[in-house]
Amino acid sequence: MKGTKLRGLYAITDSKLLADGRLLPYAEAALRGGARLLQYRDKSDDAARRLREAEALRDLCHRHGAQLIINDDAELAARLDVGLHLGQGDGSLSAARALLGRQAIIGATCHARLELAEQAIDEGASYVAFGRFFDSNTKPGAPAATPEMLEQARQRFSQPITVIGGVTLENAPDLIARGASLVAVVHALFATDSASEVERRARAFSELFAGN
User: Fold this and answer.
1) Which of 130, 137, 142 is nearest to 191 (CA)?
2) 38-75, pLDDT tens digit by residue?
3) Residue 144 has what DSSP assignment?
4) Which among 29, 78, 121, 181 could disulfide-bond with 199, CB atoms 3.0 to 4.6 Å apart, if both were Cys?
5) Is-contact 121 159, C-beta < 8 A?
6) In sequence order, which residues have a C-beta less than 8 Å from that of residue 48 and are 6 or more positions away?
7) Omega into 132 within 30° of 0, i.e. cis?
8) Is residue 80 a contact partner of residue 61, using CB atoms and an 8 Å limit?
C-alpha cells in the first residue's frame, strides 16, 4: 500500500481542536513525533479551504514519510492522489477503490462488528477500524467495541486493524498487545496548548510500537 507499512500512530485532525491556525503546525508536530497516517477530517462545506488545507497536509506527509488520508471525500482524495477513510453510510467502498486505484490506502469504519469488517475487506479495504473502545469526545454515541472483539478480529483478518475511541497512552498498550496495528488518536494527541506537546505525545504513542 504505497510502500508504507500500516502500523503505528494514526493521527486524526479535528476542526474545532485545530482551529485558529493550529492545523498545520500541530499536524507537523504529530508527524515529527512519528505518526504514520494522518487523517484530514473536516465536515464543513468550504470546498476551497478544504482543498487548500488538504494540499498543505499532503505536502507535510510527503516530507515526513507518512500518508495522508481524507475522511469521507473520495473526489478530494482522488484529486490529491492520497488515501481515503469511509464511515458506514459514507458511500461505496468498492466504488472508491475503482476511483482511487489498487495502490491507494482506503480504510473503513466497522464500529464493533466483525461482519462489517469482512464486508469492507471483500470490497477492497486496506485497513479496518473498530471503536469506540473507551469514552470518546469525538464519537460519544458510537457503539462500544471490546478488547475481546479485537482479538477475534486479529485471528480472523490479515489486514491492519485500527482502534479508535478514547485511546490514550495508558490504554493503548493493551490494545496493541491484543492485535491493533494502528491506534487512531484525536484528543489525547491534539488537545493541548503547544505543538511541542503534540510532538512529545506523538513520540510516546509511536514508542509503544517499538519491539511489538
Assistant:
1) 137
2) 999 998 899 999 999 999 999 999 999 999 999 999 99
3) P
4) 29
5) yes
6) none
7) yes
8) no
